[in-house]
Specification:
The chain contains five helices and seven strands, in the order ββαβαααββαββ. The chain has two domains: 3-61; 82-214, 2-Layer Sandwich (Alpha-Beta Plaits), CATH 3.30.70.640. It has helices spanning 26-53, 95-103, 112-125, 127-130, 170-188; strands at 3-6, 13-16, 82-93, 139-149, 154-165, 196-206, 213-214. It has a five-stranded antiparallel β-sheet with strand order 4-5-3-6-7. It has a two-stranded antiparallel ribbon with strand order 1-2.
């Protein structure tokens, strides 16, 4: 069924397929777009107004945002030092050919797993230089475990980081596995460009006011 509507431009009429969900009157479509844009602009303005007025945005949970919505480094000077631990995980799929070379330690650059392990340890201690709002942390332990997953032609990387201080080491654990994964890629890229870094994630943390976290893997 066809119906017609007048667009008011030149006095003409154009077809409106009223029963076709994919077709709309041109004027109605333009009006809907304008209304949508206006609604989005109002939501944008209201969002930042609410930040300033502390209404709908719970700033308690956004510790790196101040009362005006600006980024900030959290002041931890008044927090008591406690034992903080975090663990993270990443997977690097490298494919069957590169995997066999890694397993046989035949990659020309050297021992892939050992180089990636050292890279991850070094990276965890430099997290505060890489992530702008992280604190310099006196790390007391960093352990990286790299294992070969023969069924999936992958390298599984896990980090365990510990400190005694006023803030956690989640970012240090995540940075460790991220850089270790990048190192694995660098070591095998001459063999394959199709390697993939997958599932970089925090798997556990303990200590601090936010309590403990354990991911179900």
């Amino acid at each position: 069924m066809r119906s017609y509507c007048t667009d008011g431009k030149g006095g003409g009429e154009h077809e409106n397929y009223a029963n076709d969900p994919w077709m709309k009157c041109l004027d109605n479509s333009e009006h809907a777009v304008k209304e949508s844009n206006l609604q989005l602009r109002n939501q944008h303005d209201q969002f930042y107004a609410d930040i300033s007025n502390k209404k709908t945005l719970d700033l308690v949970h956004l510790t790196h945002v101040d009362e005006t919505g600006q980024a900030r480094m959290v002041d931890v000077s008044t927090k008591e030092p406690t034992i903080r631990k975090a663990a993270a995980r990443a997977i690097v799929w490298i494919g069957p050919d590169a995997f066999q070379l890694v397993a046989d330690n035949q990659i020309k650059k050297g021992d892939v797993l050992k180089v990636a392990e050292i890279a991850g340890i070094c990276a965890s201690k430099l997290t505060w230089q890489l992530i702008p709002l992280c604190h310099p942390i006196a790390i007391t332990k960093v352990q990286l475990n790299l294992t070969l997953d023969h069924d999936n032609h992958s390298v599984i990387i896990e980090s365990h980081v510990t400190t005694v201080g006023p803030t956690g080491v989640e970012m240090e654990a995540l940075t460790a596995v991220s850089v270790a994964a990048l190192t694995v890629y660098d070591m095998v890229k001459a063999v394959t460009k199709e390697a993939e870094i997958r599932n970089v994630q925090l798997i556990s943390k303990s200590g601090g006011v936010s309590g403990n976290f354990n991911r179900q893997l």
